[in-house]
Design a protein that fits this description.
- A seven-stranded mixed β-barrel has the order 1-2-3-6-7-8-10.
- It has one domain: FomD barrel-like fold (Beta Barrel).
- Helices cover 25% and strands 41% of the residues.
- The chain contains four helices and eleven strands.
- It has helices at residues 122-131, 136-155, 161-165, 168-177; strands spanning 5-12, 16-27, 32-36, 45-47, 50-53, 59-63, 69-75, 81-89, 93-95, 99-112, 118-120.
- The chain starts with a strand and ends with a helix.
- With 178 residues, it is of the alpha+beta class.
- The radius of gyration is 16 Å and the shape is globular.
Length: 178
């Protein structure tokens, strides 16, 4: 028997709504772990000119109820770990029937497999705030979240241990076991 699937309604302001379906591998009160398999992307995701996520890749996602971010363990299409990626977003609303909802707040924190952490896409948040897609208080909260995660990463205190424990291989094994 396969694990349940969740449908994540992911709004990117002003009006781009995508629904992502993922396998729910762990449904704890503090962290929910999902697996997105064999991704199909509009274009490869690159950071500083390097492809960090591409078609055919898998991502292990970590959703922390109440948190203003989620975390993904990114891989290339061959399964090689490329890094840890945190989306700054509104706390995920978890509805009955495995329907989740959240809004992207543009900023991301990236920790490459072989380099220092960095905040990405500040220009996108600035543009969204200027256009009125994100109010000033929410933009400030997004900046605060990204800066906090970056500081913790630099201190070696983030991401949490569960992110290292749930590798792609472990997630695929959990999916196979059902």
């Amino acid at each position: 028997m396969s694990p349940p699937r969740v449908r994540i309604h992911y709004l990117r302001p002003p009006d781009r709504l995508r629904v992502h379906e993922q396998w729910l591998l762990h449904d704890g009160p503090d962290v929910k772990i999902t697996l997105a398999t064999d991704l199909e992307l509009d274009a490869p995701l690159t950071v500083e000119g390097r492809v960090v996520l591409e078609d055919g890749a898998d991502v292990v996602w970590f959703t922390f109820p109440g948190a203003w971010h989620d975390i993904g363990r990114f891989h290339d299409a061959r399964g090689r770990f490329t890094g840890v990626y945190a989306n700054v977003l509104t706390p995920v609303q978890i509805d009955a029937g495995h329907e989740w909802r959240t809004t992207d707040l543009f900023l991301d924190v990236w920790i490459p497999a072989d380099g220092p952490p960095a905040i990405l896409d500040r220009d996108e948040l600035d543009e969204a705030a200027e256009a009125g897609w994100v109010d000033a208080a929410t933009a400030d909260r997004a900046e605060e979240e990204a800066e906090t995660l970056l500081a913790w990463a630099r201190q070696g205190a983030w991401p949490p241990a569960v992110v290292d424990a749930w590798t792609r291989e472990r997630a695929l094994e959990a999916l196979a076991r059902g």
